[in-house]
Design brief:
Among the domains are: about 45-135, Sandwich (Immunoglobulin-like); about 140-235, Immunoglobulin-like, CATH 2.60.40.10; about 245-340, Immunoglobulins (Immunoglobulin-like). Helix content is about 10%, strand content about 30%. It has helices at about 10-15, 365-380, 385-405; strands spanning about 40-45, 50-55, 60-65, 80, 85, 90-95, 100-105, 115-120, 125-135, 140-145, 155-160, 170-180, 185, 190, 195-200, 210-220, 220-225, 230, 245-250, 255-260, 270-280, 290, 300, 310-320, 335-340, 415, 420. It is elongated, with a radius of gyration of 37 Å.
Length: about 425
């Protein structure tokens, strides 16, 4: 529990008294010090008051009447638990003023604030109440992980234990201190990235390790995690890269260009960055990841399907900050950005493919070389600038070659609907 945060007993003591009828609801908080019902002629006391028990335990409780009215007895009294009347065979009269209750093999409390055990008069009025806490002691927290977004803060999260549920209100406190000196500090901003997390916003030292641990406490005991030792420089991450843009590469039907901006939070720090891209087609949930982007802020995706919508995301891993040797922590993925590849303009088998004039050399060897080149490109060179320069040079050479051949032709180009003429390229890669 963070320093200064009141426990459940203190919180209950400060709450205004609830109406008597509220105790009948199984979903309401257990109210300490239930007011006695009726006109105050009879009062009673439940013993033990507000007990805390392990799951599977038994409870022996009594409701004893105190009052000045002659003839006040325990005859006709009965018990309810969370608003439900308990079977009469679970209770018996100890004497004329005391009704006893025996409960065995108790289950965990239905609400962490405690279950309502209430003693009623014969007419249904409430005489006394008690909060019953049944649960488990906390387990040792584990799996602590921490990260920093600006080298000034630290956010940590943890797993509460293998069982998880204790059925009791359990306080978790994140503690930290400098490894070789300094006093224990308690994190104060809880639940920042989930139910078991805390954020330390400032005043952290660099170039020195911290010890971090989590303490868990409830009514049945306490537990402490193992100590995590880290240097803030080794756990720096960033927000996802902003301004991710995906666009077509001219008329290339199997490629898309991806560009993004380096995360601004680390622009003033000495570090390296590497990026990953993942993409998928619109009607699929399977992502393909491109790992070899290195520290570029642009990439060309090749080997895509023509006329297809793709969703693309980018993430960043800053590493080597001020000489840190750690691998770095990946950011979250950016928001998906969508773009489509151009539709293929090459006609199908029955579409009247335009062939070169008879007698000209076959383009079969060129097609085979092109297929080999593109096959290698798709497999090895998603984001290699050198490979795409070679590819662009090859395209320029092919266009120049076609232009030279077309100058010696009187026919052999395919008319388009707008009257222009289309370049003859291999019909199938």
């Amino acid at each position: 529990m963070p320093a200064g945060r009141p426990g459940p007993a203190a919180q209950s003591a400060r709450r205004p008294p609830r109406p008597l009828s509220s105790l009948w609801s199984p979903l309401l908080l257990c109210v300490l010090g239930v007011p006695r019902g009726g006109s105050g002629a009879h009062t009673a006391v439940i013993s033990p008051q507000d007990p805390t028990l392990l799951i599977g335990s038994s409870l022996q409780a009594t409701c004893s009447i105190h009052g000045d009215t002659p003839g006040a007895t325990a005859e006709g009294l009965y018990w309810t638990l969370n608003g439900r009347r308990l079977p009469s065979e679970l209770s018996h009269l100890l004497n004329t003023s005391t009704l006893a209750l025996a409960l065995a093999n108790l289950n965990g409390s239905r609400q962490q604030s405690g279950d309502n055990l209430v003693c009623h008069a014969q007419d249904g009025s409430i005489l006394a109440g008690s909060c019953l806490y049944v649960g488990l002691p906390p387990e040792k927290p584990f799996n602590i992980s921490c990260w920093s977004r600006n080298m000034k803060d630290l956010t940590c999260r943890w797993t509460p234990g293998t069982r998880g549920e204790t059925f009791l209100h359990t306080n978790y406190s994140l503690k930290y201190k400098l490894r070789w000196y300094g006093q224990d500090n308690t994190c104060e901003e809880y639940h920042t990235v989930g139910p078991h997390s805390c954020h330390i916003p400032k005043d952290l030292a660099l170039f020195t390790p911290y010890e971090i641990w989590v303490e868990a406490t409830n009514r049945l005991g306490s537990a402490r995690s193992d100590v995590l030792t880290l240097d803030v420089l080794d756990v720096v991450t960033t927000d996802p890269p902003p301004d991710v843009h995906v666009s077509r590469v001219g008329g290339l039907e199997d490629q898309l260009s991806v560009r993004w901006v380096s995360p601004p939070a680390l622009k003033d720090f000495l570090f390296q960055a590497k990026y990953q891209i993942r993409y998928r087609v619109e009607d699929s949930v399977d992502w393909k990841v491109v790992d070899d982007v290195s520290n570029q802020t642009s990439c060309r995706l090749a080997g895509l399907k023509p006329g297809t919508v793709y969703f693309v995301q980018v993430r960043c891993n800053p590493f080597g900050i001020y000489g840190s040797k750690k691998a770095g922590i990946w950011s979250e993925w950016s928001h998906p950005t969508a773009a489509s590849t151009p539709r293929s303009e090459r006609p199908g088998p029955g579409g009247g493919v335009c062939e070169p004039r008879g007698g000209e050399p076959s383009s079969g060897p060129v097609r085979r070389e092109l297929k080999q080149f593109l096959g290698w490109l798709k497999k090895h060179a998603y984001c290699s600038n050198l490979s795409f320069r070679l590819y662009d040079q090859w395209r320029a050479w092919m266009q120049k070659s076609h232009k030279t051949r077309n100058q010696h032709r009187t026919r052999g180009s395919c008319p388009r609907a707008d009257g222009a003429r289309r370049e003859v390229l291999p019909d199938k890669l």
